[in-house]
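Quick one, probably user error.
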């Protein structure tokens, strides 16, 4: 009787572990299929480039604004704005 119990328990364990291994291998095969891998790679590249392009665009915007501000500052140093009321014309 004990041998029969161990035989049945071993057979059940074998069936369960074989079906688990089969499902695991099928999932792995789906993940490494060429179409699946290509889709995941393109999604990863698109995500990485999308974030990088946003950061580059932000940096360019900040750089342009800073360049304009600095150019205005330099122009004002070269040609200061004079108060028109301070200039009194002398009549001849």
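Nope, works fine. Designed sequence:
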């Amino acid at each position: 009787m004990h041998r029969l119990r161990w035989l049945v328990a071993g057979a059940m364990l074998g069936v369960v572990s074989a079906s688990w291994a089969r499902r695991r291998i099928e999932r792995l095969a789906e993940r490494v299929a060429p179409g699946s891998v290509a889709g995941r790679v393109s999604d990863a590249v698109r995500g990485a480039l999308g974030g990088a392009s946003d950061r580059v665009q932000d940096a360019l915007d900040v750089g342009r604004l800073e360049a304009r501000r600095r150019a205005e500052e330099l122009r004002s140093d070269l040609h200061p704005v004079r108060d028109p009321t301070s200039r009194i014309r002398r009549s001849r």
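Residues 20-78 form one domain.
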